[in-house]
Amino acid sequence: MSTDNLYQTPGSNVVEPSSGGELTDPQKRPISDGWTWIADGFGLFKTGIGVWIGMIIAYFVLIMVISIIPIVNFFAALIVPIFMGGFMVAARHSDVAGGPSFSDLFAGFKEQTGNLVLLGLIQLGMYILLMIVAFALFFVIGGSGMAGMMAGGEPDPSQIQAMGFGFVLVFLIMLGISIPLMMAVWFSPALVILNGLGPWTAFKLSFKGCLRNVVPFLWYGVIAFVLLFIAMIPLLLGLLVVGPVLTASMYTGYKAIFLSE
Known about the structure:
Blueprint: H1 4-7, H2 33-45, H3 49-68, H4 76-96, H5 113-150, H6 157-186, H7 188-195, H8 199-211, H9 214-231, H10 239-258
Helix pairs in contact: 2-9, 2-10, 3-4, 3-10, 4-5, 4-7, 4-10, 5-6, 6-8, 7-8, 9-10
């Protein structure tokens, strides 16, 4: 029985899902999928190597330009999900149409733009809230030492120790909260632009899918880290391959977890 009606926004203008099946409740995948998603991502990359490299270069150049322009750089966080949606469309075309088109990169500016921008707003709001909580905790724990330093005084060893403990605690808290946030963000652009889900529904479903597949994601993370390390050795040129492959692997993971066989 199809579950499209459970998740899909009625009447939305969306790209049809991949031929892999219809949207379902997130499926639990084996640990081997951590490698399979990357291998399949490389397969999608091979359908249009020049186009994929061109898209990844254009994306990073545009984001860098936006990031250095005052005021405008604030909107970079809102634009990233739009481009990620475009990459998901490119991956889908690589999967079912024989290859991507460079114009796919900008598909998010034509389809589901409002929901993708809302996705960026929610993500930005969560990160801002995370930073506020982190700094508040740091000042509560190591505030006395920080106040002494700001006043020009010399904090005693106990205050320095409290500040050090505060830094460590803040780092661990940010890491602990950032991981679930990343899980909620990971598949959201694909779920929005390929299935017409609302941003909050996409966040929740992405988190659920990642949570059910923690083990293959750990294996995926290890492989991705090694590939990125190797890619950075030859003057970062390897990123022109690894970048598109890992981006495409987000689609292959989405397809394996969320689409019925």
